[in-house]
Amino acid sequence: MDGLMRTEELVFVLAATNLPWELDAAMLRRLEKRILVPLPEPEARQAMFEELLPHQPGEEQIPYDLLVDRTEGYSGSDIRLLCKEAAMQPLRRLMSQLEQRQEIVPDEELPKVGPIRPEDIEIALRNTRPSAHLHAHRYDKFNADYGSQILQ
Question: Disulfide-capable partner of 148 in 33, 54, 97, 111 (CB 3.0 to 4.6 Å)?
């Protein structure tokens, strides 16, 4: 970045990485502010679940409070994966029903994909584990060594 351009204009560069400890010293020198973005807090997780698994009128309420309580330590990416897993369960049920039939079902007779049920949420929670906790100590050390401390 230094010496890359000959101009009086300021250039703003925003970069992100999940593995900041793998950045070399030359890159670290060029990144003026290094800010650790923590894992989502309960309010953020609630908003993510409401956005990714919206309640459908006439369907059973999705247990957002259960999801929030059981996803401490999950990253945003982990939560997105959990929601995809939960949303796939009704399709898997439908595919299982169709596979059990011996005859070919005409398109107009195909059953509809059902709603997400509480048991789908339980399956998704069992099948989707948090990933960021594996490196929690490395994030803390990197932040202590190189992070820009943001005062609130």
Answer: 33
State how many domains the chain has: 1
* CATH number of 113's domain: 1.10.8.60
The token pair that represents 18 in the structure block: 């999940």
Residue 105 is assigned to a structural domain of this protein: yes
pLDDT surpassing 60 at residue 138? yes
Q: pTM above 0.85?
A: no
